[in-house]
Amino acid sequence: xxxxxxxxxxxxxxxxxxxxxxxxxxxxxxxxxxxxxxxxxxxxxxxxxxxxxxxxxxxxxxxxxxxxxxxxxxxxxxxxxxxxxxxxxxxxxxxxxxxxxxxxxxxxxxxxxxxxxxxxxxxxxxxxxxxxxxxxxxxxxxxxxxxxxxxxxxxxxxxxxxxxxxxxxxxxxxxxxxxxxxxxxxxxxxxxxxxxxxxxxxxxxxxxxxxxxxxxxxxxxxxxxxxxxxxxxxxxxxxxxxxxxxxxxxxxxxxxxxxxxxxxxxxxxxxxxxxxxxxxxxxxxxxxxxxxxxxxxxxxxxxxxxxxxxxxxxxxxxxxxxxxxxxxxxxxxxxxxxxxxxxxxxxxxxxxxxxxxxxxxxxxxxxxxxxxxxxxxxxxxxxxxxxxxxxxxxxxxxxxxxxxxxxxxxxxxxxxxxxxxxxxxxxxxxxxxxxxxxxxxxxxxxxxxxxxxxxxxxxxxxxxxxxxxxxxxxxxxxxxxxxxxxxxxxxxxxxxxxxxxxxxxxxxxxxxxxxxxxxxxxxxxxxxxxxxxxxxxxxxxxxxxxxxxxxxxxxxxxxxxxxxxxxxxxxxxxxxxxxxxxxxxxxxxxxxxxxxxx
Length: 598
Fold this sequence. Notes:
598 residues; globular
């Protein structure tokens, strides 16, 4: 039905007849001449109909937005004065000779303009229309180009594309699994995978050496801009490769993606330890475009007569750190109060501040609600440590170390944007040497990555003797403050894996029930192996400049994990539930809750 895509017509086609199909993006009748912008997935081209062909002209005059049409016409060059440099097809137009309406369109329920102001609910309910908008179409096309480039790279480097099961057993993080009831085993459930982790390790045990899969994963958790209940991973696993080799190979892949598709040279990726990232930036995925850093000052304020400072400064688990913001002294008290409110989101109790109004005036040039607690020597030491100059602002975080890191790390990002401090367009890095375990709120331990991550240079006995000191052989790729992917060297020894399970409070009986197949497989010549998984949606989001992964997925869910398009989730048929042996407990209504409260 077509000879060319609309967006592909150019000056090389002048004088040729073409047949195009697509949707009416816009139609204008200007003094007896109808101008039609015809759109398909590759772009827009202008078609002109004049009264010399009255039958065709009359049809063209009836067109409205989103009519689906076929046109035949002659490509001709636009006059120089009418060239549109903003369009790929801006140097040409098509003189319409024939026109067929393939399907008309009802009045549109959403605005299709570039500067549309539809709600997200509207956009997802009418997603098939939303995806016609050039901005959205371009992102979906770009996504396809990325996955194609990834496949070419991995295929060319000896990786095998192997599928793993979607219906599987619940993971250790079972509370976040989506469960699927089994009809043939009533009362029992499959789980949708949060990751193909165990299966890709089993593939390494099977001798396939290099595996990859662009795979759907599922996680039942609260959502954010970069989270969805179903998402896509570029999943990679290798045998006989060290962590350095895995990082080098996947870095090569990502650098190639950016060069091929954006003509951006990311260069080599620096490496930074987890400890350094948390100390300097308060985050294990620091945005290096932001020059602000957390500066420790506990040694300076440990003896001041101000409990908010000296308490954490003398607490082995506490921390006092500051941010020095160039030009920040111009903030009003109201704006400072908003910053103080902002850090409470991350567990901080408040935010002390100090304005350097005039460095030359000494204490007279300093303004702070806590200045009365600080001696001149302390203030001088703070100014020297931070390098603050006239017009700068110093913000204090004082609390448990984890609270200071999270709150001040978030404030660092906010201040960087508020004061337009970001430098450079792309800043990648590797974060390495993560702690293997971290404390839970009840004093227990859980794996920082996952329980199949190997420690660096420790025996099982050494690990069990001091697990909190263990460093994992793990690595995360970070770009502009966004974690693109993470991976690790895996445990390939059954004794080490059993030791990790015990440290995590998984006894031998539970380990056998949940992971008996893995422990058994580890006994039969399992090779050293390592891997990494990238979040494809996040990569596309960053590369296209989208603000949410929902804008780079064809049919995403809302932030409440619902689909307005299909009205999913929905209630199951009672007959199906009976066949599955499943009963449903209905949620109590708000009215019932209110009566109970009375």
